Amino acid sequence: MAQVAADEVAVTADVEEMIVNRVIDNAAVAAAAIGRSAPSTARAQATAHGPSSGGIGATVMGLPATQRTSPEWAAWANGAAVRELDFHDTYLAAEYSHPGDNIPPVLAVAQHCGRDGADLVRGLATGYELQIDLVKAISLHKHKIDHVAHLGPSAAAGIGTLLGLPADTIYQAIGQALHTTTATRQSRKGEISSWKAFAPGFAGKVAVEAVDRAMRGEGSPSPIYEGEDGVIAWLLDGPDARYEVPLPEPGEAKQAILDSYTKEHSAEYQAQAWIDLARSLRADHPQVADPQAVESIVVHTSHHTHYVIGSGAGDPQKYDPQASRETLDHSLPYILAVALQDGRWHHVDSYARERATRPDTVALWRSISTVESDDWTQRYLRADTPSYGGRVVVQLRVGETIEREIALADAHPGGARPFARPQYVQKFRTLAEPVLGEAEVERFLDIAQRLPELTATELAQLTFVAAPGQLPEKGLPGMF
């Protein structure tokens, strides 16, 4: 992994293009979330820490570019803002991931250390490559480990590429980052709390600090993966286990970002296709939205979908109208019920308490269950053309049965309406304009779309400022 990060192979044009798309995507979802509780808390903590002495500091989303903080705290605050709505890019395989979580820490270090847009692009190509490669090969959730254990190492490696560090230094940083980001998966079980938003920001913060220590000559637990008391032996499949991680060969371009995909809807990725199916199903059969007409709705889907966001999770909170937003966006029965009734999905309205507690919605919601299908599990795991959908069976009280299936979300590269630059730009405008105003939206889009050519001075402006009144007053005091 360290050798891949240190390999100075050129970034291809298609990867460069996609990195720009994902920088825009991250900013879109962060702007929409910037006034919410978790991002506001993270921002307050970050701004309590001024720029460290080694550089000029990094920007915090929502604040003027002149207001800077130390890069590890910028990674923390911006990471929480990006993840808050669960609305940015994804890659699913043996493990789950949001590889766009690499952007906040790598960008923060780039700004702090005066690097330019081309340096940032190289660093992000590495971060995406290594996180996605790990996700293809190593299941963490099988062992109840949170998926940011793949993010800490990838972000550390991406920062190493950004700074042009030697492989030996990056090796130590990766080891430290992995060792300190392995945590249980309870953050995504039961009543899901705001920590789900903070977790990737924490991993990014840890990665920045790990690189700093490694640059100063400090080492890590080694070998961190393969050691007798290492991650594989005691946290994964055991001391005799072997994993084949598909890393690029020396001189081979880092292309993994092209395997990932973003979200059209603000919900867990495995719900994306079901929202699209619900829209079309409701249009053709309006009665499926009426709990008085529906006997049951059964979703036949993959093991992963059934156990993570379906009834296979065994979490009663997934059927609780008083559950947190974080819990509801990991409840396929809730998401399907609301999408069937509304014919759309909205990052605020669809989670509103009055929406979740509406009696007809609760009745429809509780008629929905998921079951694991071996066929859809195999399609999910297929390396060449993975599928993240399934088949729905609606049993109406009049005796009629309606069935429909979907393999991919409409916005997926293989879906009905794949996202390209115009869709990313439109997503940013839709989500950000109410928070930033039109002028700031256009300013950000101009600089973001020129990312590969940006000077260090211009890269320092790759952030956005919230319009007056969009950021909340100070919340509860902490110790900083």
TrEMBL record:
SUPFAM superfamilies recorded: 2-methylcitrate dehydratase PrpD
Source domain of life: Bacteria
GO terms, molecular function: lyase activity
Start and end residues of each MmgE/PrpD N-terminal domain: 11-243
A Pfam family of this chain: MmgE_PrpD_C
InterPro entries linked: MmgE/PrpD_sf, MmgE/PrpD_sf_1, MmgE/PrpD_sf_2, MmgE_PrpD, MmgE_PrpD_C, MmgE_PrpD_N
MmgE/PrpD C-terminal domain boundaries: 265-451
Gene3D superfamilies: 2-methylcitrate dehydratase PrpD
Family recorded in the similarity comment: Belongs to the PrpD family.
Name of this protein: 2-methylcitrate dehydratase
Organism: Kineosphaera limosa NBRC 100340
Lineage of producing organism: Bacteria, Bacillati, Actinomycetota, Actinomycetes, Micrococcales
